[in-house]
Amino acid sequence: MKKGISNHQIGDAFDDFMLIKSSTKGVASNGKPFLTLVLRDATGEIEAKLWEATKEDEQTFIAEELARITGEVNQFRGKAQLKIQSIRPAQPTDGVKASDFVEKAPVSQEDLMERITEAIFEMKNPNLQRITRHFVKMYQEALLTYPAAVKNHHEYVSGLAHHIVSMLNLAKELKELYPDLDQDLLYAGIILHDLGKLKELSGAATPSYTLEGKLIGHIPMMVEEIGAVATELGIDGEEVTMLQHMVLSHHGKAEWGSPKPPLIREAEMLHLIDLVDAKMNMLNRSLDKVQPGEFTERLFAMDNRSFYKPLFADQYKE
Amino acid sequence: MKKGISNHQIGDAFDDFMLIKSSTKGVASNGKPFLTLVLRDATGEIEAKLWEATKEDEQTFIAEELARITGEVNQFRGKAQLKIQSIRPAQPTDGVKASDFVEKAPVSQEDLMERITEAIFEMKNPNLQRITRHFVKMYQEALLTYPAAVKNHHEYVSGLAHHIVSMLNLAKELKELYPDLDQDLLYAGIILHDLGKLKELSGAATPSYTLEGKLIGHIPMMVEEIGAVATELGIDGEEVTMLQHMVLSHHGKAEWGSPKPPLIREAEMLHLIDLVDAKMNMLNRSLDKVQPGEFTERLFAMDNRSFYKPLFADQYKE
Amino acid sequence: MKKGISNHQIGDAFDDFMLIKSSTKGVASNGKPFLTLVLRDATGEIEAKLWEATKEDEQTFIAEELARITGEVNQFRGKAQLKIQSIRPAQPTDGVKASDFVEKAPVSQEDLMERITEAIFEMKNPNLQRITRHFVKMYQEALLTYPAAVKNHHEYVSGLAHHIVSMLNLAKELKELYPDLDQDLLYAGIILHDLGKLKELSGAATPSYTLEGKLIGHIPMMVEEIGAVATELGIDGEEVTMLQHMVLSHHGKAEWGSPKPPLIREAEMLHLIDLVDAKMNMLNRSLDKVQPGEFTERLFAMDNRSFYKPLFADQYKE
Amino acid sequence: MKKGISNHQIGDAFDDFMLIKSSTKGVASNGKPFLTLVLRDATGEIEAKLWEATKEDEQTFIAEELARITGEVNQFRGKAQLKIQSIRPAQPTDGVKASDFVEKAPVSQEDLMERITEAIFEMKNPNLQRITRHFVKMYQEALLTYPAAVKNHHEYVSGLAHHIVSMLNLAKELKELYPDLDQDLLYAGIILHDLGKLKELSGAATPSYTLEGKLIGHIPMMVEEIGAVATELGIDGEEVTMLQHMVLSHHGKAEWGSPKPPLIREAEMLHLIDLVDAKMNMLNRSLDKVQPGEFTERLFAMDNRSFYKPLFADQYKE
Amino acid sequence: MKKGISNHQIGDAFDDFMLIKSSTKGVASNGKPFLTLVLRDATGEIEAKLWEATKEDEQTFIAEELARITGEVNQFRGKAQLKIQSIRPAQPTDGVKASDFVEKAPVSQEDLMERITEAIFEMKNPNLQRITRHFVKMYQEALLTYPAAVKNHHEYVSGLAHHIVSMLNLAKELKELYPDLDQDLLYAGIILHDLGKLKELSGAATPSYTLEGKLIGHIPMMVEEIGAVATELGIDGEEVTMLQHMVLSHHGKAEWGSPKPPLIREAEMLHLIDLVDAKMNMLNRSLDKVQPGEFTERLFAMDNRSFYKPLFADQYKE
Amino acid sequence: MKKGISNHQIGDAFDDFMLIKSSTKGVASNGKPFLTLVLRDATGEIEAKLWEATKEDEQTFIAEELARITGEVNQFRGKAQLKIQSIRPAQPTDGVKASDFVEKAPVSQEDLMERITEAIFEMKNPNLQRITRHFVKMYQEALLTYPAAVKNHHEYVSGLAHHIVSMLNLAKELKELYPDLDQDLLYAGIILHDLGKLKELSGAATPSYTLEGKLIGHIPMMVEEIGAVATELGIDGEEVTMLQHMVLSHHGKAEWGSPKPPLIREAEMLHLIDLVDAKMNMLNRSLDKVQPGEFTERLFAMDNRSFYKPLFADQYKE
User: Fold this and answer.
1) What ipTM was predicted for this assembly?
2) Record's InterPro entries (chains A, B, C, D, E, F) (predicted)?
3) Share of chain B residues as helix, strand and coil, in percent rounded to the nearest 5
């Protein structure tokens, strides 16, 4: 089986299909046009230059298209870059499809849905259960395909549901250790906390921010929507305010986008569970790419730190 | 006519009716109970001690009641304190009523309402006009009596409407000077920006924060309500998002409670107009209490600054 | 059975033994001396004033002594204060002992020790296991009695061991959810992270800071001690540096006392687990004191927030 | 009439005169020298590359010279760049002059001067009037040509006077709304607040910082100069200190360059009026360049925000 | 010889003359007036209460008067307080004078003046020498009596000159170690850096801030004055700007009151020398009051730190 | 004698030997490989491009090798760049050696060692003397060759010892001016404060950070080592804690890497002496490169400031 782009080293030859993520025209210092392509497969991305590009190249090699490329992986300003030797558009007979070239959660949509459904089923508080179930039904398709973020963590297809399910599992264990926690509230908060992103972002595959996303943001949008759904379902107990508060406060501080800090126990835990799962996702994926004794690349969302994998990392694993 | 409590100097004798704002029991070092009363009239507040208070005193002199008090204005830890010599509850025959003992805006509710109505009438954009008119109608009574804040600025009866009207006047002039401004949007933003306080605060006279106020806050509450009203009125143009954005961003920065900073011209101006009017209200009221050549008390909401009134302040006034 | 001081309301009569935590002489405005006593039992503390104290009182009612007190719980500046009506020193025949008047962890020292021993037993990495076991053996007695902190969280007898065991349990679950975590490293980091406090603090019961604690602090002291123990045991693999790094970085940021931020995955998780358990300890103990629908007192170590207990908090509990 | 450079789109052909703002020699990767020219006309600037430049080109195409250029507008790293096809120096017979290629205030110098004179004429306080008149007379020529800043706002010929006049107009309206304001003090503060820039900057057209500007700054320089002028005019009332204070504090905070914050009402308003006018100038000029439904480029001096122009922006304009 | 107030312990009897620094009337909880006196001698200050004060007491025991007091040193809220047993005003026959009751520099005014004169004499740069000499002559009397600050460091009679002389000595040594330093510039900067305080403060003995001090501050005032003196002396070389820059930047950062940071080598050193001498003055005076093995009181101007005096502090002294 | 690379101007021809500091392969836009060489001699560094580099070039011109180069100094993006015309590896017959191509302290290792030895000899406190002497003996060779830092200040061979000796000289003078200082403690702190860098950095010539350096840092590493040495020498007086505290706190604040701020007088002075000497080293070396009337390049470690050398800088020098 062919290895993905992330597994190539500097100097490796390359010969495979790639999905074009973006294509930008430039003019070289010799006056000739060239294309800067960002290419991707399921393992990652790479930048490539197509020198002396023709008008036809410009119209053929555009975003969302697949192409067969041969070349060599070089280094440019400390980053890998693919030097294209030959390129041709993919043909129907090649039997490749775009959906195989994007990163996906390591768990199937069915399993993710099942775990979410189970969590809702376990709820005893009918107000929380009805609101949560309503949202999951209403947004089921998007919920199962959207990423949890545009970059940094869970930024892949089904990333949002994957993040929710990891957090539900964490919450279940915390409830065991700290039985005073209100499990229903915590579960509901986890499932709903980032659903505003389904409106903040434009789509599952190559998401950008919507106008509402830019001007209002997913947190106030979701607070509003919980209010609207509660009205629609005729629910007006304190549960509505608590759920809105949990969504509102889950970034922890005003300067991180939460106009109120967590003021109930479950909101504080939601914030911490969110942190733990997002950080573990970033750390595991970065550390997977390095060998024991090496440091990862700098992780922007973790204060630009570069993490070390100890030499004895794999020594005592079962 | 009797002068109010704010116009008494240290050492003055006092003999007048006062409204009891709060009453707290304590035990003196000699073991005897006493009451700490916060008293107010239309000009301001003063603390008073009722030593050796009986059980009956405790039940008589409670918050929201009026009392006739004689005594002397002393100083305690740098603040004026009323030393009570005699106190009796007000009688129906005294002809005093509580509403005369609270501070009010210097403009009548009718005039305030008229100016707001006029601003709505001038609007050309029907979406903005309908939403704004709906809110004003829905909340008219509260809007005309609530303060704009619990403390710091416009913290008096009709303070919110007074603040709105001052800001509308300011906006009208700015529109003259900067004709590119969208007057409808600015007017609508001004009228709605703080309406969430009608739900954040418990009442017009001695307001405290509601549970929703504490856990959600007036900004997200109002964003939600604009969404609900727009749905109710069947309006879904970009005006709804812009209005929500203006309310959301009017504190200017995340750390001041606005999860998004102003991202449209009118939102930026709304934020600045709000600042100008709030600051002028605080400054004028503090400077009114001092003589030329003196400094005001420290103003907490203005970075704890103490402002100077120049010696020539009144010299060239018409 | 008698209820503890924390369960008294303002106005309640009081008649019970208490442990004197501190005793300070003052002079009242009438020129007579009095004593300010801080009294405690296993449920909490209260301040009390003994007016017109004699020389004998001064010498009798001193820190660490027990006394039988009758009086009434009053309020002073918003805090409960015990008004003493009578007081006498405890007699041998009273059958009370000081150790019953301090707060303790809700788990026995035996159970705590067992869980720590079990965690060490599970380790596969011999270097980590030997170092950790050495420390636990060396400090066993103090480890089982010291608080985790002077105030804020786990500030009771056996608090440190209680905190360690809760964190070990949390770590065990995290390892299930994120199998890439190095359990041995995480366990060792958890057990050792705060052991420096055994030298930073003066004792288990009423701890104060030692000179070394004030000038060096528990983090660098423990880093040094891990180095010394490793030398003593003849261990010099990378495990020593990793353990030192985990202790060094567990406060997360330089401004919180960690000269290096976490730079390995397990150090990042140690920091987060520490946060989760400390916060849950503070939250649970504060929320236990209020009824549904009420807010807790302000929690200094949680950004001075006051937390709300929802009305439906106990409604769906099993 | 020919459209300016700011109105060209990527891909447009270009054929017009431009003023050379700067010219820098470089060596291309083929070892041949080239010139990087920054070109401007009254509407804006563009960068251009003149490849394979001869020694003669180097001496001909230098800063402050005019040239006739044909070429094409390309994109380079997200910014427009002019690809030069032919270039020749402007001839006397071309009838173009440098002063037509710089941006100017949209109001004539005569009108600006008239408004400033009128404001001084209205003053009733003779001390303030004499000092202000003295400065305006002394610096009249520079005052009418200098920009208000090197970049960000009013950074064009007569920008300083334009800024002053806008602020005077704003102040006039504020005085109407808040009659307690001392109009003379506010007018004097507005006219003088940035006059130090006439010494801080090297000239009106392509200003750089003088040595005194870099080491002392316009604020302390102007405070000093007010003192000197007052001495010269024999004025020593409190007005001198107040004027110095207004200049000194008009940046609002120590970290923004004002060693004292505003401590008189008019100083606070001067700071806010300055903000309002500077921001409106930046916003209007950026929004003019985009269509409804688009965002502006990021505005560095406004916290790097990108502003949105609503779709309905021009819909209800008269 | 009698020991000063700073050398009394809690519990000591007291019988001596004191200077009254301030006297404030209060009303006790028994309704009777009392005076809070702040008393001082050459070693320090103490607060005292004069209970049941008569009208006559009020008029006799006022600020700036001397009184003979007997009493006892007690503790109140952790601070020493003098309990007055008897008090009488000082008589001419007592032979005490106010100037003996204030703290003074440990060096005579003659010696201080001589060292400053010597430093000016050593200068080779005539411009710097003339300006500095002019200022010293003009302000000689105040310069030799003013404190360097109202509190924190060198806050005693002749404190400013003492601070200048210490800094000159430090600068002389630095010049030896770093010969590139411009000694003339450094000396001139040291002598002038705080002279603005002679106008910022109201006097030498019990200084308060003048209006100009509050609204302009000593730094911009001195920058202005250097400019005026240079004009008067007909000096306009770069030395004037450099001297102004050194005064302007000597607080190091905008947020500490310097609108420009140091931008020449000697300005950077002036800032550091100022820090070293101010801190040594605070540290030495605080450490003098404690024994080896003790901590000082918290020093507000040193980030509220409490400093330790090692046990071996005096062991190896010659 | 040949002038070094730092003394070349843009446009100068170049013909000399250089040490290759690093060599990186790149691919030009024409597809041909090139080498980016960083070259250095005892006066500084320069970047150079070797276009169309052969495989042999790649293997010949590598880090740590010497080469004879002719070419021309050009400018690229505002920095000097050497355009290589010819290059050949150095031959044994050329008689050049690498150690002549690195920057060194301006004082010989013998003189540095002598001054350090003398300072230890002067100590009267035997505990401090023994510990310090032990460290100097143990690390003598590294101590005399390592730089004080990787960049910014004293970043040359013997830089650490040079920094220590300058600080000792400064301390000697401070002791004269402030006789209360404990000279032994200050000397010991100065000699040891940065010795942890001998383990934090990989070597003297082209130092990088070790793993322990990255994960623990030189401060905690040195605190640990002082503890170990004291144990080894059987010393346990308070001197050990004081020395550890001085090392620990010498960065001054938690956010600068010191988990405790200075809490003894000598620690505060150590921090300030360190600042003074590091800043003078940076300032002198930058100002040496510019002429009177010019500004230095921006100094990153001094808040990115650019310093001015006054026109009269050299005018009155002896």
Assistant:
1) 0.86
2) HD/PDEase_dom, HD_domain, NA-bd_OB-fold, NA-bd_OB_tRNA, YhaM_exoribonuc/phosphodiest
3) 45, 20, 35
Q: How far is E11 from chain B (nearest CA, A)?
A: 23
Nearest-Cα distance to chain B for D293, in Å, is: 10
| Partner residue facing D307 (CB), from B239, B263, B276 | B263
Instruction: Kindly report the pTM of this predicted structure.
Output: 0.89
pLDDT at C132: 98
pLDDT of C220 over the 80 cut:
yes
* A chain contacts of residue F29, beta-carbon cutoff 8 Å: 28-30, 51
C-alpha span between D252 and A229 (Å, rounded): 46
C:E CB pairs within 8 Å: 15
Distance (Å) from the alpha carbon of C141 to chain A's nearest alpha carbon: 26
Q: What mean pLDDT, rounded, does chain B reach?
A: 91
Residue D214: list chain F partners with CB under 8 A. 308
pLDDT at C1 over 60: no
Alpha-carbon span A158 to A205, nearest angstrom: 10
Residues D14-56 pLDDT 10s: 899 999 988 888 776 666 788 899 998 888 889 998 888 888 9
Distance between CA atoms of C171 and C169, rounded to whole angstroms? 5
Burial of D233 (0-12, 13-18, 19+ CB in 10 A): middle
DSSP string, E57-117: HHHHS-TT-EEEEEEEEEEETTEEEEEEEEEEE--GGG---GGGGS-B-SS-HHHHHHHHH
DSSP β-bridge partners for residue D48: D37, D82
Split at pLDDT 50, 70, 90, the class of D78 is low
Domain coordinates in residue numbering, chain D: 5-100, 109-281
Question: Tens of pLDDT along F110-134?
Answer: 999 999 999 999 999 999 999 999 9
* Token pair belonging to F233: 């020498």
Question: Structure tokens of B188?
Answer: 């609508």
Q: Residue F112: name the closest of F79, F148, F86, F68 by CA.
A: F148
Say which CATH topology domain B5-100 has.
OB fold (Dihydrolipoamide Acetyltransferase, E2P) (2.40.50)
Instruction: Name the minimum distance, in Å, from the CA of A57 to any CA of chain D.
Output: 18
DSSP-assigned beta bridge partners for residue A81: A47, A74
Nearest to B216 by CA among F124, C215, A219, C14: A219
Report pLDDT for A207.
80
Of A26, A31, A211, the CB nearest to D76: A26
Cβ atoms of F106 and F158 closer than 8 Å: no
* Parallel/antiparallel/unpaired status of strands F44-50 and F79-89: parallel
Q: Hey, are the CB atoms on C211 and E74 less than 8 Å from each other?
A: no
Q: Verify whether the Cβ–Cβ distance A227 to B224 is below 8 Å.
A: yes
* Partners of residue E176 in chain F, C-beta under 8 Å: 173
Asked if the F109-281 domain carries CATH number 1.10.3210, the reply is yes
- Residue F135 CB neighbour total at 10 angstroms: 21
